[in-house]
Prior knowledge:
By secondary structure, the chain is an alpha/beta fold.
Amino acid sequence: MADANEELRASRRDLVRRGYDAISRAYRDDGAANAGTDEHADHYERWVDELAQLLPPRARVLDLGCGAGVPATKLLAEKKFDVLGLDISAVQIERARELVPGATFEQADMVMWDHAPASFDAVVSFYALIHVPLQDQRTLFPKIRRWLRPGGYLLAIVGFERWTGIEDYFGTAMFWDHADRDTNLAWLIEAGLVPLWDRFVPEGNVGHTLVLAQAT
Length: 216
């Protein structure tokens, strides 16, 4: 049963990979490298500004699920942070390297990827963890804690209400898995990431949770 569960989760993550390979430019075209072309661009800018106030100059930041690098990775790089962007989609990473030459990028499944402990001052993940199966999300939080230096920060979009599904997204199948807000906060605490604040971020008739947590 465990092997079947692992295979199912891997197939869900691969569906996300294939989906973003297919819709990369439809989801966010090259113009998103410039301000004001993304519906959430003002949100990203505010979020990055808030995080930047907490970080030292030249801080090392991991953008987990960076997509094509815009707008979040680009905003971080423009603040002169040392940014590593990670994404499961090869197409997204290829575009990110062109659109954000000031950052470094790797193509990998975040669930399988690992890095040296205490390597980052901050980890950001905007609208990426919600594409990861819940069991994998829960196991990612302790890994993020290991990657962070003591006192480092995680700024992430996670679920607000419990929901899972595969739906059409820009003409391709896409997978989502959301835990509810309280479950997400409990998982963070369990992993040694203390939530400092969380906010509801509306989107249409639903929404997500934006949470800032600090490594103990």
